[in-house]
From TrEMBL:
A GO molecular function held by the record: monooxygenase activity
Top-level taxon in the UniProt lineage: Eukaryota
GO cellular component, one term: endoplasmic reticulum lumen
Needed cofactors: FAD
Protein's name in the database: FAD-dependent oxidoreductase domain-containing protein 2
Record Pfam families: Pyr_redox_3 (PF13738)
Keywords per UniProt: Endoplasmic reticulum, FAD, Flavoprotein, Glycoprotein, Oxidoreductase, Signal
InterPro entries: Auxin_biosynth/cation_transpt, FAD/NAD-bd_sf
Organism: Rhynochetos jubatus
Family: Belongs to the FOXRED2 family.
Length: 675
């Protein structure tokens, strides 16, 4: 009985020691700090757990050779801060203009230590609530009908301190090395521990396992001191300029391709690493063979008793022995801290290194658990920039907006404009918006039409994967149709085997805009919100279901979509066809004429002329309009002859020419009727 009472007391004390927060963020890397910023700006109860003594601990070690491949373009020729973020791949979003990465480094490819310093300043200057030296070692669920999501998240750290949260944001990144086990893999050195001193490789022959940026980064570092370097991977090399995916091989690291293609001993090979085996001889040299050669063999008898591929094929590519073999296979998500009750499962195929999540970045297994940052890249893997700072800073903001609507009743931010501003609003966003530009095919601007298409509501950077759930996810209604504005590359332009430098690769004429190859804006029109079923049945390689109408704005060499004839005019006519209206702006005289000749006035006349709004005339404006043929010159009206104009006609002419007195359209009708 005494033991039972003691155990019960421990349980009670344990349950009472839970520290509660509405939001718990695991990881103080870039995505964790970005989430913390938005939570703090909204005044929410949150905490960020970081296992290290400082934020951004991943960048304290990686990349090993300290050169980032995220560009830091300090000059664009523009002063628009939103536009400049299109070419700033390192800054996080905040209101503090001093926390732009360009103020920390002048290098186009910055040093990783600079990123560590930047993240430290971001956390400290914005006074984000980060709890350092706290490693979360276990996460489980506690069912509770009173909780936001029907359960609480229970977290335990390395000191057995317990925490309870209503929502969990996982921003741990990808830090567990990918390891392939095969016979002899114990002789392989890992990217995370291999020497970065080139002199340690002088006069050696090296085999690198992997074909990504970490593999080529390692090769680039020792290229000038080795006998030769061979690189083996299951897939062929993918160049980022061909795939338009920033995670593929970047030019800054591809020196080995030069030495390979220019016959300078180095080379690339394709093969399944799981089929390989490594045998070490008496001199310490490493020989590559195939796994099936070792089956039913007594490897302890020495290398002389083992059949090597060159014994049967004397020109076997990797017949030369190697001094070192280095594994550079990237990283994967750490699933070990999550209890099975959370249903955190790895993806399938080439996404198995990521956790399974929905297009809303919420776990497929547990409501209220969101994955942020690099670990959320399964949503747009090999398609967009969601695995990198310049991409997930926007997806993190999108997740925050979804949470604000779900838990606090704060609708997705929007602005309302008269329909006459639709063309201008779209042109403005496609020319400066950074979120659309970086997260192409993933985030989109949404235009919700009001009744009779007299006005519209504009929502920025919404995840298109959950377009069918727009009303519930944003708190906005879409009963009258909508436009979706998104950025896309050409359907058949990107790929590892594509020649992206072929002649006539660019499209310059508006009538061929749908054939544009480079990144360009695409506008989808839907008469109603697409359904879940339509989203699942969307065409392959399409970001959205088939629309009622679609318009491509022709690609532009300067990414400046402001040309009146090539860009703006075709867009306006597309919008007019969808809305069955005229979006042009008219002078008062034209509106007056339309009042007699049309059953429906253009919106600009309804909102301006009929509503006694718009610009007041001036003598200079009138003179320019007459010179351009837009208005008649009433000063030349000939009133000579047998008929003398009466006082009413003179008053009407005076009103038409007056620069300060607006004329109500009903007054025109009265005067016309009297005459």
């Amino acid at each position: 009985l005494g033991l039972a009472l003691y155990a019960g007391g421990l349980c009670a004390a344990g349950s009472a020691s839970f520290l509660y927060h509405d939001y718990c963020v695991i990881g103080a890397g870039p995505s964790g700090l970005q989430a913390a910023y938005f939570l703090q700006q909204a005044g929410r109860d949150y905490v960020v757990f970081e296992r290290s003594h400082a934020p951004g601990s991943f960048f304290a070690l990686y990349p090993r050779h300290r050169k980032l491949i995220s560009i830091n373009k300090r000059y664009t020729g523009k002063s628009n801060s939103e536009f400049n973020l299109r070419h700033d791949w390192n800054s996080l979003l905040s209101h503090n203009r001093r926390l732009l990465f360009q103020r920390y480094s002048r290098d186009f490819f910055p040093d990783a230590d600079t990123m560590v310093r930047y993240l430290e300043d971001f956390a400290s200057q914005l006074e984000l609530r980060v709890q350092y030296n706290t490693a979360i070692v276990h996460v489980t669920l506690e069912r509770d009908g009173q909780a936001w999501n029907g359960h609480y998240f229970l977290l335990t750290d390395q000191d057995r301190q317990n925490y309870k949260c209503s929502s969990l944001l996982v921003a741990t990144g990808m830090w567990v090395p990918n390891v392939v086990n095969f016979p002899g893999s114990e002789y392989v050195e890992g990217y995370e521990t291999v020497s970065i001193n080139p002199e340690d490789f002088a006069g050696q022959t090296v085999l690198i396992l992997g074909r990504g940026n970490s593999a080529f980064e390692t090769a680039e570092n020792i290229l000038g001191v080795t006998n030769f370097i061979h690189m083996v991977s299951r897939s062929r090399v993918r160049l980022s300029w061909a795939t338009h995916y920033v995670g593929d091989l970047r030019a800054i690291n591809n020196g080995l391709l030069d030495t390979y293609q220019l016959k300078s001993l180095d080379g690339l090979l394709e093969g399944d690493l799981e089929d390989l085996a490594i045998v070490k001889d008496k001199k310490g040299k490493l020989h590559i063979t195939l796994r099936f050669y070792l089956e039913n063999r007594n490897t302890s008898a020495g290398i002389d008793s083992i059949t090597l591929p060159q014994d049967e094929l004397d020109n076997f590519a990797t017949r030369a022995p190697y001094d070192r073999v280095i594994r550079c296979l990237g990283w994967k998500f750490d699933f070990s801290i999550f209890n099975r009750s959370l249903g955190m499962m790895p993806g399938k195929g080439n996404k198995k290194k990521y956790p399974q999540i929905k297009p809303s970045y919420e776990s497929r297994g547990t409501r209220g658990l969101f994955v942020l940052g690099t670990a959320s890249h399964s949503v747009d893997f090999r398609k967009s920039a969601g695995g990198f700072i310049h991409g997930f800073r926007y997806t993190t903001r999108a997740v925050h907006r979804l949470l604000e609507n779900r838990h606090h009743g704060v609708p997705w931010p929007s602005t309302v404009h008269p329909i006459t501003q639709l063309t201008n609003s779209i042109i403005k966003r496609v020319n400066e918006a950074s979120g659309l530009y970086q997260m192409f095919s993933v985030l989109a601007d949404i235009v919700l039409l009001r009744e009779n298409a007299t006005a519209f509501e504009y929502l920025e950077e919404y995840p298109v994967g959950v377009l069918a759930e727009l009303e519930t996810q944003t708190g906005r209604k879409a009963p009258n149709g909508l436009f979706v504005i998104i950025m896309e590359y050409g359907r058949n332009f990107s790929g590892a085997d594509k020649d992206v430098f072929y002649y006539n690769r660019a499209v310059g004429e508006a009538q061929h805009a749908w054939q544009s190859n480079f990144l360009h804006p695409v506008i989808y029109y839907y008469k109603r919100l697409p359904t879940e079923g339509e989203m699942r049945l969307q065409p392959p390689d399409w970001p959205l279901p088939r629309p009622d109408a679609v318009h491509h704005i022709v690609e532009d060499f300067l990414t400046d979509w402001t040309a009146p004839n090539a860009h703006i005019l075709p867009l306006r006519r597309f919008l007019e066809n969808c809305l069955s209206t005229d979006l042009r702006n008219f002078f008062a005289e034209s509106c007056f004429l339309f009042a007699f000749t049309r059953q429906k006035l253009p919106p600009s006349c309804q909102l301006g002329y009929v509503g006694m709004q718009g610009l007041l005339g001036s003598q200079g404006l009138r003179r320019r309009a007459v010179e351009a043929g837009l208005l008649e010159d009433y000063t030349l009206t000939d009133f000579s002859g047998d008929r003398t104009p009466d006082s009413r006609a003179g008053s009407q002419d005076q009103l038409l020419r007056d620069e300060a007195i607006p004329v109500h359209p009903l007054q025109h009708l009265v005067n016309a009727k009297d005459e």
